[in-house]
Queue: 2 jobs
Job 1
Amino acid sequence: MSQNIQQNDSSLYGKQIILGITGGIAAYKSADLLRRLIKAGATVQVVMTKGAQAFLTPLTFQALSGLAVRTDLLDTESEAAMGHIELAKWADLVLIAPCSADFMAKLANGLADDLLSTLCLATDAPVAIAPAMNQQMYKTAVTQQNLLRLNQQQRLIWGPASGVQACGDQGPGRMEEPEILFARVAHQFKLTNTLQGINVLLTAGPTQEAIDPVRYIGNRSSGKMGYALAEALQEAGANVCLISGPVNLPSPVADCVKVQTADEMYQQVFARIAEQDIFIGCAAVADYKVKEIATQKIKKNDKQLALTLIKNPDIISEVATFENRPTLVVGFAAETENLLDNASAKLLRKNLDLICANDVGSLTTGFASDQNKILLLMRSSEEHIESEQLPLASKKELSKQIVNIIAQRYNQKKSK
Ligand code: C5P
């Protein structure tokens, strides 16, 4: 699926869409719309009403989406796989195309007597409708009142178009063409994905803790993930400040401050933290530093050399508990075992909103690799954690997906 994705339009990649199909001849156009959404990297769950099935069979949409079409509210088999409330929560967008006059009336009045109308009530994702009906049915007063109510209820109304209708009439009521609806979907995600004008502070790379003037304690962080993130954040419109430990990479952003130690990183972060909307701790900060750094190079006279190490400040924990805390604090967890347990514990312990966990024990996803596989854990309430697995991809591609999710979470949190 991912081979078909246009590299410059990632707004639909990984998005989860419910495509609701109601009774109308325009349903045949929804097959084309579905194909476009899938090609752009979205996962689409098709839900058909009874009326829709009179025009097309679920099999058509199943073949295109790769997922069994849902048709019934209380179907035990599909409910066991994913309950309707779970499905409603799963969605990033619900698009009803075509949306019949009957379904508009249902939606406007909050009825929930079938799967699709129930999903519309149970979701907190945007619900968009693409009306399709005979021009007279569209113009009639009650339909217009329903439209007004739907508009007041913040439902997105896409179309209808005007022209010759399947029944031979002429006027408004044709469903928007699939390419127009597709563009609307992409635009909708771009709106929620955007970080235009948002201040983001990002740490990246390792830190180096001096032992003496020539030696240091370091780690294997290459900075690749953090630098790719800085680039993706900038592309999403954010004002990015990158605080970076020593790495061999050109900075993708103009505002880049180079530091060496955890203490320096801490100072640079806290000099700027008050103006930040989002903080992302991608740096592999050394947990300990040498208590007394030798002023001269240590000679190798003795068989043993004991260094006393003391704890470095935990930068991200302090950012997350700072009184003027950024809206979103995002951490990374590089683990070699028990990824899920360790990362969830870290998310809670450090008071983060989101954590990107990766297995650094593996050669394909480790520090120096250009690829990575990330398990995202997000705090949706005090104790509830949601997870999302981002499959193996280049660090650049993964960064775009992470930035999309960060943008969504940020915009959601801001709008609450
Ligand atoms: O505890 P651990 O080092 O595994 O946590 C990783 C996360 O905490 C990363 O987001 C890292 O940038 C951040 N961190 C920090 N300051 C430290 C240690 C880790 O900001 N001293």
Job 2
Amino acid sequence: MTILRVALDIPLPRLFDYTVTDALPEDVGRCVRVPFGSGEKVGVIVALAESSEHDKLKPAGEILRGMPALPTDWLALAEFCSRYYQHPLGEVMAMALPPQLRRGKLPSTRKSKLVPAAEGPPPLLPELLLEQTHAVAAVAAGFGRYAAYLLHGVTGSGKTEVYLRLIEQVLEQGFQALMLVPEIALTPQLESRVACRFPRARLVSAHSGMPAAARAKGFIAALEGNVDIVLGTRLAVFSALPRLGLIVVDEEHDASFKQHEGLRYSARDVAVWRAHQCGIPIVLGSATPSLESFFHARSGRYRLLELQRRAVAEAMPTVRAIDTRREKLQDGMSGALLTALEVRLERGEQSLVFLNRRGYAPVLACPSCGWVSRCHRCAANLVVHLADRRLRCHHCGLEEIIPKGCPSCGNLDIHPFGRGTQRLEETLAARFPQARILRVDRDSASSPKKWQALLDTIHEGRADILVGTQMLSKGHDFPRLTLVGVVGADAALFAADFRAPERLFSQLMQVGGRSGRAALPGEVLIQTEYPTHPLYQALVAHDYTRFAQAQLDERRAAGFPPFTFQVLLRAEAKKLDDSLAFLKVAAESARSLLPAGVTLYDPVPMRLYRVMTLERGQLLAESASRPALQAFLAAWAEKLYLQKAPRDLRWHLDVDPLEF
Ligand code: ADP
Ligand code: ZN
Ligand code: ZN
């Protein structure tokens, strides 16, 4: 009798053994139905064994041989994630597989026939600029060997063109290519660009917004080797690709590559590991690389490839910081910005006013008693949404009708305080009644369809002034957009999160890059009370490297990543005391394991300590040595799984956390 070792989607760090009579070595990597509790589950066969440390094993059910086995490199990838992020292997695999497959449902059309996207003549390709040629040659010379490249180039410098040339070459050699992009919203646009470029290639996308059947079908086709290019968001990094030859991660700095629940993985980091494991090149591209990647490029771990200028537009936009300290703003806008908007209206060009805060105002308040609109489930304010007359919590979704008077003292004269996109839209409409104003944020683009409609409106020139959040900052070309105004950005300069300046810089660089992307020159005006702040100065000078270097110096002095590695243990329960008590015990058990060079801090409440009625605390461990931290973590996690906790308490580990 043989024993199957099965990874099941159960929050326990172990495998489950079952007996079986007909298993073959090639069944490793196949899905299998097994009895579990009073029901049945589908798991992945990780190994065959002769004996088990458990007794009274149950017999396994059907081995799903209708689907090819997951290859060993895929299993190794899942095992790496399980080890590195201290997350049960079965849960890792369940997350990495499309939902249908994890339930053991195979796509109905068995021989997944993928037809190339389009027929037609090969597209005309632009002649590469010198730096592009160099970048392509550098990477292509290393096909078949691991190397990580950081492709640094401003928006419009032709990074995508470089990816496409590399994909072309790798396909010609019979390999598969994997391309990761940060947002679902960006995939259709890129998909059509890739499909046009490779009319004969078999292309599939992979992102969570796809219909389940299509995703399962694409996954299996890739696994069978019947796909040439997989294009997708972070989860696409788990595509099974037997002939993988190249990985591209576009906008590698983007925070959405990191998953914030369940397996808290960074798709970029996992992609680098995967490239290393497969012995292939990986290209990480960005206009504002993450400080981690920039640091690796500096230290020689990654090779730096730079594209210094834009491929099409003549010049970079002019960036100016508008000093708002001495000016009386008109509804939050400076004279300079208003004039610039007026000029664009006269010329029939588009403008964008960027404010990264949706809603009408961040809070409703009573000036007489000091009442403010608070969410009773979260440690946060309710945001005023005047468009549908609601107060809304941006953390838990709680909605309330806007009260007529102060709920606390009855005062009828209560006001929205501060400014969000809806208020800015209202202000601009009053100021420029002749202009067509379009607000673009998560509220106005609440579905892919609405989002597409907004994009169409912009592209067809049916909008003069766009008011938008960072939704607008990514990946889109608006040829008639020549002015970007930035308001309300200063707060991020002094935020408690040490990554806030890095995010602000990249956001402003990206949003500024929306202007002047075609023949018309662009201008960026940043309203600020700190016009001489080094961050703004670096933006004015278009000098990412200066900014990144200064940030690295600060991080080194403060002992922050990338100079240290971090892991957070978080706990949440109905009562903060329970969360903190759990963390305290965890800290005590950690102390007995703590190797030299790993620092453990005290448990603290999280900054946003209450969300959805759950109260949260966290505990930070840190080390300058990743191996030391990893070794400690493995031993610690074992203890955590055994630690007693109140029933309503949940905990998780976040390795390389991005948010605190
Ligand atoms: P990025 O990805 O860096 O934003 P893209 O690759 O999308 O840049 O290029 C920006 C624009 O310039 C695109 O319209 C692209 O077709 C064009 N482009 C890129 N490289 C060249 C080139 N060598 N010659 C002419 N046009 C180019
Ligand atoms: Zn009041
Ligand atoms: Zn809430």
